[in-house]
Amino acid sequence: MRPRLLTVDPVHPEPEVISEAALVLREGGLVAFPTETVYGLGANALNPDAVARIYAAKGRPAWNPVISHVASVADARALTSRWSDRAATLAAACWPGPLTLVLPRALHVPDIATAGRDGVAVRIPSHPVALALIRAAGFPIAAPSANRFTQVSPTTAQHVLASLGDRVDLVLDGGRCDVGIESTVCDLCGPEPTLLRPGMITRETLEQLLGCPVLSAPRATAAVVHDDASTVPQRSPGTADRHYAPRADVWLVNMAQRTEVASALQSRRDAGSTTMVTALLLNPRDWLALGIDTVVPMPPEPAEYAYALYAALHAADDAGTTLLLIERPPETGPWSALVDRLTRAAR
């Protein structure tokens, strides 16, 4: 059975639609809704049973915390035990927007929302539908991406339906998400700010705003053992080694590897493989001789690339792609967030 699907104006959300969705949340249900980054799977962040439904619907392991979405700085501060000057600086500059802050949690925040850690992940989204829903509900909304765990995040309501089906009670269709990849996550719990997940708000931007270096999380923090019983709770969502992954095998390649890739593809064909190859390429002309089934030219600017990426991955899955070649983008500035997503998809 498919969940209820309600269309909502993404700029001026209809009060009656928002009220219906807020009622579902108040009754402990799950509502998928658009944010500027990706669609979130929302539940009352202060209701442990409701948050547990998110984990069950996604197949999400208990070591992976969720982000609590709020509508104001005052609401964010209410979830924390300590609001620092650094938090105030970043909130003033980046909220509403695609930045998540991990801050010392208040005692009333349920363990399940933080994976039992002392930090709570909080952000104010900029999407009008998300803000209207939070305000109408009257509480923080826990909302990881609205897809099964490790799969490609949804940027349309149709992606949500394809991944979650009847695991969600209501889907608000507010059109396609503007940013297209998940938020930057910055940890402010310790003595030095630490970048846990890159996003379109870059490390360089954070450092300029804070006037100090922003550290990288140790690789051990992001490396996740796929055994819930032996995995340490993570500081941030989106740090599993395999994440954001389509069903197809993913090869992340660069132009220096063209000969090697051509040889590997030919070997598959010689062995009688029926591999269907889709390629997401920044420089399509340089790869045409490889006999790729479907070539998807990717935008040369990181913001446009981010907007296009997950839609392209979903389309490749829908087309039955078995091997996905992705030309590796640069690794500087905002491209680093895209390389992060692609690297995890290719594991």
Could you explain how this protein is built, in words?
The structure is a single chain. With 347 residues, the chain is of the alpha/beta class. α1 packs across α6. An 11-stranded mixed β-sheet has the order 1-8-2-3-7-4-6-5-9-10-11, with helices on both faces. The protein is built from 12 helices and 15 strands. Helices cover 33% and strands 18% of the residues. The two termini are 33 Å apart.
Name the descriptors.
about 350 residues; four-stranded parallel beta sheet; 12 helices
Chain-wise SSE layout:
Elements (H helix, E strand, L loop, with lengths): L3 E4 L7 H12 L4 E4 L4 E6 L3 H11 L8 E3 L3 H6 L6 H10 L4 E6 L6 H4 L4 E5 L4 H10 L3 E2 L14 H8 L5 E4 L10 E4 L6 E4 L5 H8 L4 E2 L2 H4 L26 E5 L4 H13 L6 E5 L12 E4 L4 H17 L4 E5 L7 H11 L2
Parallel strand pairs: 1-8, 2-8, 4-6, 5-9, 10-11, 12-15, 13-14, 13-15
Antiparallel strand pairs: 2-3, 3-7, 4-7, 5-6, 9-10
Helix pairs in contact: 1-6
Summarize the structure.
With about 350 residues, the protein is of the alpha/beta class. The chain has 12 helices and 15 strands. An 11-stranded mixed beta sheet has the order 1-8-2-3-7-4-6-5-9-10-11, with helices on both faces.
The stretches of 5 or more residues where confidence is low (pLDDT under 50) are: 220-230
Strand content: 15-25%
Order of helices and strands: EHEEHEHHEHEHEHEEEHEHEHEEHEH
Task: Please count the helical segments.
Answer: 12
